[in-house]
Amino acid sequence: MDIVILTDHRYVNPLEINDYNKNVLLEDELVSKALQKEGFKTTRVAWSDPEFDWSSTRYILFRSTWDYCDRFDEFSRWLNLVSQQTILLNSEGLVRWNLNKYYLKDLESKGVHCSPTIFINANEQTSLKHLYEIYGLDETVLKPAISGGARHTYRLQKNTFQEYEATFQELLLTESMLLQPFQYNIVTQGEISMVLIDGRYTHAVLKLAKEGDFRVQDDFGGTVHQYNATKEEIAFAEKAINACSPKPIYARVDIFKDNEGMIALAELELIEPELWFRNNPSAADKLAKAIKKL
What we know:
This protein is α+β, with helices and mostly antiparallel strands. The protein has nine helices and 13 strands. It has helices at 19-37, 72-82, 92-99, 103-109, 128-135, 165-172, 184-189, 231-242, 281-292, and strands at residues 3-7, 42-46, 59-64, 87-89, 118-120, 140-144, 154-156, 177-181, 191-197, 200-208, 223-227, 250-257, 263-269. The strands form three sheets. It has a five-stranded antiparallel beta sheet with strand order 11-10-9-12-13. Helix 1 (19-37) packs across helix 9 (281-292). It is globular.
């Protein structure tokens, strides 16, 4: 087999087809057909499949391994195994780096503007009360350093943050955490997700939170809309990609206007981002051609 399109077990052969997994299946089908047009033999496998021989494939293409956050130790062991048997796309080094949102520190040091972030290490002896006092915080967002789909993401306010102290302390026993200023423009203007293939912009979407929420993920009622990125936004995304080493073959750069009106990086998704090939099937063709050049 030339390329394994990697998913998680829920999406291999789902018994019930709904709008959510229908999109997953369609996205993977578009990628598979694009790869086949370039002469690759493909199959689709869950990363946690205990029977599959990973040495039997030339490449593994990460696509929808969305359960890795809930099975991180198992996923990490699997990553150790498969990285010795085949080639990962994106690369093993990028995957390991991108697993933990501490990568924001690296990007900031290379001139990529990110939301100001307080990084709190697992088992660090601190409290929300202490952090609020020493940093003079007001409204913030608390999230784990390793997470997806807004898992354990909370909006804290100056007069109510104490309600989350127990949750914070429980999470901190096993996880590093991030505390960031709440970004009001994400609520009013949304978050832009730009897709880059082989370092070049292909298309974008605008994600909007439902009324009364701040999370743009569709898991929480967020909606997705077609979006034409500006030259400034594209230049920002390309700068973020150029700060990575090695360069990713695919990436999703999530940006927003921060509280000062500047373009800022929300997240750089290099492992399992939704890439909305269904909005722009030619991007799947570009991905296949990029892989063929390797």
